[in-house]
Amino acid sequence: MAVHHILVLFALSKLDVEGMSFQQTVNRELVYTAVPLNFRRASKVCEQLGGIIAPLKTRMDDMLISAIRGKNDIWIGGTDREIEGEFRWLDGDLLNYTNWRQGEPNNAKGDEDCMISEGNRRKQWDDRPCHIRLPFVCAIDVDSVDSKYLLFI
Asked: Which Pfam family, any one of them, does this sequence belong to (predicted)?
């Protein structure tokens, strides 16, 4: 397992293109979009690229996304819109790995159904209202898209 993580780190290539940052790992492409959108619109952008808002299913995913986004809070691909308190990734998987900030998720004011990764020094997760606007990272399966087209979006 540790060898796989090291290979993923060494298999990265990165390119920045007008507000979007493209990064490829062994099995997927990650596109960071600095333009803040609400969760629904961010999700649609990722779908148009052939992916989803990035799920952070492992500590390695979490660390990689943290490195890409810098100090910005970003959307991550999880929500409890279907069943309150049961967060799932947009691909339907339950959360096995978590990195919630202490006391989270708390569904403050009954309106926090979408997940963010905080850009502060903690780099932990929080639940927030889906209507706020944040940058986001799309995860795209390498086999589903030709990466040369991502550079012209």
From this structure: Lectin_C
Q: Could you tell me which of 35, 38, 17 has the C-alpha nearest to residue 129?
A: 38
Nearest to residue 99, comparing CAs of 80, 86, 115? 115
Domains, the chain, in order of start with CATH, read 2-152 (3.10.100.10)
pTM comes to: 0.77
Tens place of pLDDT per residue across the chain (153 aa): 222 222 233 233 343 434 455 444 557 788 899 999 999 999 999 999 899 999 999 999 999 999 888 899 999 999 999 999 999 999 999 999 999 999 999 999 999 999 999 998 789 999 999 999 999 999 998 765 554 444 333
**Amino acid at residue number 147:** S
